[in-house]
Design brief:
single chain; about 160 residues; mainly beta; Immunoglobulin-like; three-stranded antiparallel β-sheet; 1 helix; 9 strands; elongated
Length: about 160
């Protein structure tokens, strides 16, 4: 029985096992070229009634390497019906997470879809690398937000012109 177990047989079995594991791993790997450039981590509407602002946006993480200086662009639908709000940021080496948000908006209606078109462009702003579309819905309308800020300043002092 012991003559069947020898160092060459153990080495041969280990090499065969490693070859099988390598083949399985290679077959199950995810090709980086098929991954999207960005992974959307979350987003939605933000209502800050204290300063009378409503905006919406999203947070994304770079999921596939992007050259430094590439541009992430988001075009937010204007709930009031105006031109889309376009926001851009450049990809840097200091972070892999980016948050893009619209400027303050008005006219938000509950349960209505609002579209955001995301584009990733090269650093020269000439080549489109990737696109993605998002849809956000608010559960409430912006009627809950006052016309003027209730507070002013960094300490949230009462706004003397708010009438309250």
């Amino acid at each position: 029985m012991l003559e069947r177990i020898s160092l060459p047989r153990i080495v041969g079995a280990a090499v065969a096992l490693l070859a099988v594991l390598l083949a399985v791993g290679w077959a199950m790997r995810e090709d980086p070229a098929t991954k999207p450039y960005l992974k959307i981590l979350g987003g939605g509407f933000m209502f800050n009634y204290r300063v009378a602002e409503v905006y919406y946006g999203f947070t994304a993480m770079v999921d596939r390497p992007l050259p430094t200086g590439s541009i992430i662009e988001a075009a937010f639908e204007d709930p009031a019906g105006g031109q889309r709000h376009v926001v851009r940021t450049r990809v840097g080496t200091d972070t892999s997470r980016y948050a893009l948000r619209s400027p303050p908006v008005r006219g938000v209606e509950a349960d209505r879809p609002y579209h955001v078109d995301i584009r990733v462009l090269d650093r020269a702003d000439k080549q489109l690398l990737w696109t993605h579309n998002l849809v956000f819905k608010s559960r409430i309308s912006d009627a809950v937000v006052p016309e003027r800020p209730l507070t002013v300043g960094p300490g949230y002092a009462r706004n003397p012109s708010s009438g309250g």
